[in-house]
Write a structure and sequence with these properties.
single chain, alpha/beta, eight-stranded parallel beta sheet, 16% strand, binds pyridoxal-5'-phosphate
């Protein structure tokens, strides 16, 4: 086993253990490999190991890696690209084409801009409302009391499939301290939501997130520890 396979096996067993503790099936957790610090050829390697969901936090980086992957491979892998970082207004058009999911819709205005681009392109996008559950001043996301209103307003926009909510937990040495944040996101999901996706949990804290209902975890470091980091 190479380092990447070892890392992936370890992440999978951590997911399985967390699921066992709370009576969930491991298949109910979607693992998004956060590839922001690794180049295109490592993305191809993770795809070869069976991971199809990749997360990037910059539109430009994702586009560069997509292009590189297409150059390396005449029949490029069918990857599902997730935008997990903040989306600036001037990148909305590109983002509407480059991604299948946007986790970081943090205002109705951004949703409206995306919707207009998608309508023009005849495309649809899976989106999540990013919520700043812990109210950290430096983080984006709607305030918790705005989450449901934003969710419902976005649902009315063409081209957007509003799948659920996303949050980035504050950094805590002890991941157990994040339990109220993850539980808080779950409680903000409207009762009548058709989909109940909760994107929460990263390398350091995804077990607690899974125990609190995460359906999508975003994992970088734990997958790519020990790998050569370079630009695409
Ligand atoms: C980088 C990043 C992650 C992954 O964090 P790791 O600690 O590397 O697992 C998850 N979500 C977001 C929004 C990120 O920017």
């Amino acid at each position: 086993m190479n380092r990447l396979e070892q890392n992936l096996a370890q992440v999978r067993s951590r997911i399985a253990a967390a699921c066992a503790r709370c009576g969930r099936r491991p298949e109910s957790v979607r693992l998004v490999a956060v590839t922001k610090l690794v180049p295109a050829d490592i993305i191809r390697q993770i795809h070869a190991l069976g991971l199809t969901d990749v997360g990037e936090n910059r539109v430009q980086d994702a586009l560069a890696k997509q292009q590189r992957i297409a150059e390396l491979d005449p029949a490029p892998a069918a990857l599902c690209w997730h935008l997990i970082g903040s989306l600036q207004n001037n990148k909305v058009r590109k983002a509407a084409h480059a991604f299948a999911w946007v986790h970081s819709v943090d205002s109705l205005e951004l949703g409206e801009r995306l919707s207009r681009e998608l309508a023009a392109a005849g495309r649809a996008l899976d989106v999540l409302v990013q919520v700043n559950v812990a109210r950290e001043p430096q983080k984006s996301g709607v305030a918790p009391e705005q989450a449901r209103g934003t969710y419902h307003a976005l649902r009315a926009l063409p081209g957007l499939r509003v799948r659920g909510l996303m949050t980035i937990g504050p950094w805590c040495a002890d991941p157990q301290e994040l339990r109220p944040v993850f539980a808080g996101l779950r409680q903000l999901l409207p009762e009548d939501a058709a989909d109940r996706e909760l994107s929460m949990g990263m390398s350091h804290d995804f077990e607690v997130a899974i125990e609190e209902g995460a359906t999508i975890i975003r994992v970088g470091q734990a997958l790519f520890a020990g790998m050569t980091l370079a630009s695409a």
